[in-house]
Amino acid sequence: MTRLKMVRAICEAFDEELERDPSVCLFGEDVGEFGGVFSTSARLQKRYGARRVFDTPLSEAAIIGMAVGAAMTGLRPIAEIMYLDFITVAVDPLVNQAAKLRSMSGGQAKLPLVIFTQCGAGTSEAAQHSQCLEAWFAHVPGLKVVMPATVADAKGLLKASIRDDNPVLYIWHKLLYDLKEEVPEGELLVPLGKAAVRRAGSDLTLVATSLMVHRAAAAADALTEEIDVELIDLRSIVPWDVETVLGSVRKTGRLLVVHEANTQFGVGAEIVRRVTEEAFSSLRCAPVVHGGAAAPIPFAHVLESAAVPQQETIMAAARRMLSGGQSTRVSALLDKPAVAPNPQLIGTKFDGLR
Amino acid sequence: MIDVSKEEALQLLRVMYAIRAFELRMQAIFRKRTEAGQSVGALHSCEGQEAVAAGVGACLRRDDYQFSTHRGHGHAIAKGLDLKRMAAEMLGKATGCSRGRGGSMHLFDLEIGLMGGNGIVGGGLPLALGTAFSARYRGTDQVTVCYFGEGAASQGAAHESINAAAVHQLPIVYVCENNLYAATTHVRQNCPVENIADRAAAYGIPGRVIDGNDVLAVRRAVAEAVARARQGGGPTLLECKTYRHRPHCMVIPEHRPAEERNAWKGRDPIRRFEEQLCGENAAARDELERLAADVERELAEAIDFAERSPDPDPQTVCQWVWAD
Question: Which residue range forms the structural domain that includes residue A28?
């Protein structure tokens, strides 16, 4: 085991796959010479040359389009979109082209490409640099979506995404930039579509994604005396691990989904739909989704913190579900910005760009 | 002046005949089906624009890449798509080149570098960067041709793509088919300069305006641009001035002035080339008639194959969404 920062683990994944497979190439804004604004491709151009790791014009549609065309010819391109928010100006090549080309060509085309990007609130970068848009893309047949929460998964999921023959949207969270954890030595592949049970429990199934896995873990620890939480890190949004979640809910009878993206029409809604359809009789109370507020992410830190789930709001949601109270709706929690920034919350330290 | 061999000239004419015949037959079939209340989708005819596709196709190798548009039947025929599989796709049959998933706007044959049409105006431009990049990455001299219309020239993706191609000096030949109308909007409402090709200067690449109804002029200009791209000289922007004989698609009524339509019909690319060939004694009328009859026979077989082919199995609706 070695202890690595998430950015370092990501860089290792790129390095290993570039080394292993000559059809892998990596490009995007500031990716080549500078090594990525988050250092996720540091020194890779030096190592592999500007043929394989290079800078592009500031043109997201051209970047993703280039990846799509290259993938159609058998390369395994990785296109970096610096912020997930910026993907909105390049939705056509991803949604209308990459996701549909295999079907539209009657199975002729293969699209082994990765869109590598980062998401999330917590750095006061306001509404256009903080979004979690995974649900948009999870809704599109033909796109896979992964969101690592741990350093080992950041590496293992990235390597598996690069080897996948489908378009994969890989989203890491900017607040996990400095997260340092143990990573197994040697080849590390985390299969897409497999969730990880981070903590076993019997009272409540708590499904979380990305940064929220850490906040949910802190909430579960703090609740130890009251509620025995089973925490599932979803890891992969499409495909998602239905069996692991269903198995857990059949055991606990309660389902709480926590994600940073706003609750409406989100990933949590889909998980609740599936569980309700397939394990209704196991449910002891209404399933709950605790997501972000239905508002653009604000700039001021107190507002920003209030816009996304925090340890305290997750704990409150879990308590309500176990209290047998009249209402398990947690949206009321987000009506007033009651949560002050908690220095113990994981990853709130952020050094900015390098 | 005819600057190609007789064999090449007849091949150019053969491709133009095939495109014209295909378009006329498809219109008849679609009209009949529409009258019978069957759902047939949109049909964007390229009748009148045959010289562009034929001239471009003549300059490409089988392994060169080609991205097409929503009006792409001619492009597909000129690149060598099998007429049987093409006709079957048009009719949504299981034997179609895209197994009934694509239809008129999504004709694919990756074996011959036919990377598909596109239902999104300008959608092919970003993708063409990728095949061109890939060719250079793999050390081949394959060229990518990217068709688009003068309407697509107003898309942001067009600017992003041509700019990126110029920055990376990618082997792409951009072929803008300027048929004057984006659906019903005249190019004057779409473009403030006289020629789309003039924009090449802004990217520091060569740009040329071509009479798109003169198949030999198209062939000459494309051959030069393809040679430059193959030798590492980077992208070229060619603008072919042309005109479609039909409205935007079958569900939009004709709106263009009759004088304009008649004037352009007088410049029909097929009649012009026939007259040139016969006028310069490069071919005899009866030779051309035999060629046209050959093409008709081949097309009749393709349509027959398509009509006799089975529909796709509804059980396969989710097939080929994912690569396993």
Answer: 2-183
